[in-house]
UniProtKB/TrEMBL annotation, chain A:
CDD domains in alphabetical order: ABC_Carb_Monos_I, ABC_Carb_Monos_II
Pfam families: ABC_tran
Keyword set includes Chloroplast: no
Source organism per UniProt: Kaistia dalseonensis
InterPro entries (UniProt xref): AAA+_ATPase (IPR003593), ABC_carbohydrate_import_ATPase (IPR050107), ABC_transporter-like_ATP-bd (IPR003439), ABC_transporter-like_CS (IPR017871), P-loop_NTPase (IPR027417)
PROSITE patterns from the UniProt entry: ABC_TRANSPORTER_1, ABC_TRANSPORTER_2
Name of protein: ABC-type sugar transport system ATPase subunit
UniProt KW keywords: ATP-binding, Nucleotide-binding, Repeat, Sugar transport, Transport
ABC transporter domain location: 5-249, 259-501
SMART domains to which the protein is assigned, alphabetical: AAA
Family: Belongs to the ABC transporter superfamily.
Highest taxon, organism lineage: Bacteria
Automatic annotation (TrEMBL), chain B:
Name under which the protein is recorded: Ribose transport system permease protein
PANTHER family in the cross-refs: ABC TRANSPORTER PERMEASE PROTEIN YPHD-RELATED-RELATED
Lipid bilayer topology: Multi-pass membrane protein
CDD domains: TM_PBP1_transp_AraH_like
Main localization (coarse): membrane
Keywords: Cell membrane, Membrane, Transmembrane, Transmembrane helix
Keyword Transmembrane helix recorded: yes
Subcellular compartments: Cell membrane
Residues annotated as transmembrane: 24-44, 50-71, 78-97, 103-124, 131-149, 169-190, 221-243, 275-293, 299-319
The organism of origin for this protein: Kaistia dalseonensis
Amino acid sequence: MRAVVSLEDVRKSFGATRALDGVSFDLAEGEVHALVGENGAGKSTLINVLAGVVRPDSGRLVVDGVRRDFQTTHDAKSAGIATVFQELSLVDGLSIAENICAGRPPSRFGLIDRRSQWARSVEALRMLGVQLQPEMTVGRLLASQRQLVEVAKALDQISATAGTEGRARVLILDEPTSALNPDEKSALFRAVRALRSQGVAIIYISHHLDEVLALADRITVLRDGATVWTRPAAGMDSDTMVRAMVGRDVQRAVRSRVSAGDEIARFEDVGARGRIEGVSFSLRRGEILGVAGLDGSGRESVARLLAGIERSTSGRIVLAGRDHPGSLRAAMALGLGYVPDDRKTLGLFLDMPIAENAVAAGLSSVSRLGLMNADAIRLAGAGVMKRHGVKADSPRRAVSALSGGNQQKVLFGKWLRRDPAILVVEEPTKGVDIGAKRDIHDQLVAHARAGAAVLVVSSDLPELLELSDRIAVLHRGRIAGIVDGPTATEEMVMTLAAGATPRAA
Amino acid sequence: MTATIDHPAPTSSRLRHLGSLRELALLLMIAALIAGMSILSPYFLTPANFQAIVVGMVPTAIIVVGMTILLVSGSFDLSVGSVLALSSTVVALLLLAKVPIPLAILAALLVGVGFGLANGLIVTMLGVNPLIATLGTMSIARGAALVFTEGFSLSSLPPAFGVFGKTQILGLPLMAWIMVAIVIAGDVALRRTRFLRQVYFIGGSEKAAALSGIAVNRVRIVCFVVSGLLASVAGVLLASRLMSGTPTAGNGLELQALAAAVIGGASLRGGEGTIFGAVLGVVFVALISNAMTMLAVSMYWQMIVTGLVLVIAVAVDMLTRRKS
Ligand SMILES: Nc1ncnc2c1ncn2[C@@H]1O[C@H](COP(=O)(O)OP(=O)(O)OP(=O)(O)O)[C@@H](O)[C@H]1O
Ligand SMILES: [Mg+2]
């Protein structure tokens, strides 16, 4: 096997944080090489080195036998490396086609050639099996669709450069599936395998070890910025990987069944134009209610209606014994908390310190007589870091400097600090490693068992099955069924979500 | 990156804050400028010149307080210069119509509040970009001032109205002390009050702020109202000093205030800035233009130099940001 890309003893520090601490890694032609590790292990930093976003402090980067020092992302692209970053980078105001072709827009006589831009986008989307109109504005897409467009953009770079000098031979995917449903995932896997058979080398980062085992040829485990080992995927199992990632065994939590308490919120025949219709359910103290459904089934709307950031057009929503006040602010006053699905644009203030983020939803808890108390803010930040195990050197560190998983922990900390009686959560563990996922799940369960009601919307079905006491399954905006969490199976939920009647279990 | 929010921290980590660094750098440059000028010109370090500099700074320093709050919230107000002019003509018109002084002042301040409210409502409720919204009200206020006065300055105001410019306290006129009070109150309020702390969150990310339960629109409207009110305060003080209402006053003041705030560490992208820094920016720019006057540099060159200072300050800002 010939190495297309190799890293030798690469180091990179950000202030006191050693993000990469002597990583060695090589990528062979035509292989899928998975990169796994805990949140903050240095995976994205490694990718950023390869993509020209970050310059290493020391170490060697060799591409095609030539030592390289990328100064910009453009250098990396011209060296044939196409990257899909963990944090998405699409421009909301532009169309899908414009975004896909942004790197190298087709032009004729100095003008953008719209026809070939359209054709290229259709082709890239087709490879992923996505049915989207290329002229649609990206700002209107669902999270999963955005993620696919992002991948399509990289695929376009590969096909647009095929046969040229700067031919893209390396595709990097940093957690590409964190927002995808099972069908979208398998379409993506097909595309990845097709590329591999054309000789493209692929780096694949994921916290879903089953995906890694299904897709990868080789696996490299990172821990604390260093390589633990690189091994063939054949014969590998998740436990071995987890042990290498965390340096110890991780216990699977055993959950007791509880009986739910009083009702705290209720949907009565609720409709929201075009999104959901005739939805009724009740939410009780002490329980976790999962909401499942395919993309476009309206599952997010259920959460957002309850949180008060979407408006219903019919029916009635009852919150804490009265009519829902219709805004998040007012709902918060009734004890509601809301964790949105996109931590980067909706959940967090990226340029602000961890401490400020931790208190953003509860400024009155750190102020007296209208004046802020700086010590209280810092303590609150430190408290959130400790309680959720956020990896950072100080609560003054800007959230943008944290790894994705650690950002997610801060987001949870921000809301759990308020101890909400009703917690509405979308995609609780998007981009979060196994250990942190378990932590977040434990926190959610503990919060429910302490008497709060939790409503979880997730595209990650195993997660819903593990967490939920009951699961409401939506199909085209209507509830297709509410199943008992502990006894439900993935198949049961999928059948309901697809609109079919499940066989009796 | 957001070094603008004050936390008690050990000095070393405090110095690492970009914002404090910026303020320190400005203080040093101001000191250097003063030292250099006192060597170059014997008239620089005199009480008379000091008074002239301070009095000249009053309108900008008052307006920059509102401008900084707006900048931190991620927007700005281009109408302040015109609102200043309009309030100065309104107060003069009313005084000439024999309205009692306090009532005339109150009416002028209401003009500022009204324009601020209008800006805030247009930006939040109609969703018009602050640039367009305040460019519009800027033109309306200026036009109104010219219509009321038919383009002339209104002088021979009652002598008692001159109190803000004439009363001297500890070597400075009353209007300078009002400026000091507004600046200190503004700085403390932006640093410490819960209400204005929300402004940093809104500037950091408006969506995330709304999803944290912050009443984004309400806060943004209040910011515009504060900005309008302060512009009219500056207008009244200016009218008192000049003993006339001038419809052409405050031309370009909005840009001066913006420039000073940015030099002082505020960012046009929002989320960053302090009033202390912005006022240091005002002092810095005022000193530079005073120095140039002392050295007999022509007005036209002064404009060029002021522009250069702004561009350089922003460029340095961008470069240091990219590194961090
Ligand atoms: N720009 C930065 N400034 C400061 N620290 C940083 C920066 N980028 C990354 N780090 C730190 O480097 C470490 C590695 O981060 P990285 O994003 O590479 O982790 P990761 O393995 O991708 O994690 P995740 O699975 O959560 O995405 C983390 O501790 C992170 O806080
Ligand atoms: Mg990462």
